[in-house]
Amino acid sequence: MKFKTIVLSLAVVTMLFASCEDTKKKEAEAQAQAEQMRMEREADSLMKVEEEAKFKMAEMEANSIAAKAMGNADLSTLVSALQAADMAQTLKGEGDYTVFAPTNDAFSKLPKATLENLMKPENKTQLQKVLQYHVLQGKMNSADVVAKIKAANNKLDVATLNGENITLSEKDGKVMIKDAKGNTATVTSADMDASNGTVHVVDKVLMPKM
After folding, report:
1. How many domains does one find in the chain?
2. Which pLDDT tens digit goes with each residue over 100-140?
3. Cα separation of 53 and 6, whole Å?
4. Of 69, 71, 111, 116, which residue has the fewest beta carbons closer than 10 angstroms?
5. What one-character-per-residue DSSP string does 92-137 give?
């Protein structure tokens, strides 16, 4: 009788142990499944964020200063210069810039040898300095420019990306830009808005001290 009782007790204990192990196994499986689902949701969310970021970047680049210049036939020489200087990507990226963009005719006013030398690979640093001389940090539309010129008594010195200044003034309703060589360019078309700034077209290439 005692033996049967012991055997029965052991059987019950075994069943309880097995039941307990089965419960733990099911709980572990449920936890693992829940964790997998959580990781999948996070992966989906991250993918959506990355896709949205890529879309916004593509949209910004499509409407960037560089893209606007590339879409303007009168600025093709400037685009070639930006590409030769490895600056096109800069003007595609984030940031607010104001660019005074010389037309093809403006570049044609330079001595032929000067332009040819600047476009040579070995003179890329000089070309970068010239192009940076046409770029201001921050966005200034024509209304901002005129207001600041008036506040500065018609002589506004502003720093360019290459570290040198240009001088802005107004004459007969037009914005004039004097460079380090004493030459003066005129803004012929203003406020070409872009996703990362604005472009003002000018009729001469601005030359820094170099």
Report:
1. 1
2. 999 999 999 999 999 999 999 999 999 999 999 999 999 99
3. 70
4. 111
5. GSSS-EEEEEE-HHHHHTS-HHHHHHHTSGGGHHHHHHHHHTTEEE
Q: Closest Cα partner for 189 from 45, 23, 81, 74? A: 74
Tokens of 9: 């007790």
Instruction: List pLDDT tens digits, range 82-104.
Output: 999 999 888 988 889 999 999 99
Tokens of 66: 């560089």
What's the domain range around 100? 63-202
- Of 129, 137, 209, the closest CA to residue 162 belongs to 129
Within-domain flag for 91: yes
C-alpha 202/C-alpha 189 separation (Å) is: 7
- Position 28 confidence tier, pLDDT thresholds 50, 70, 90: confident
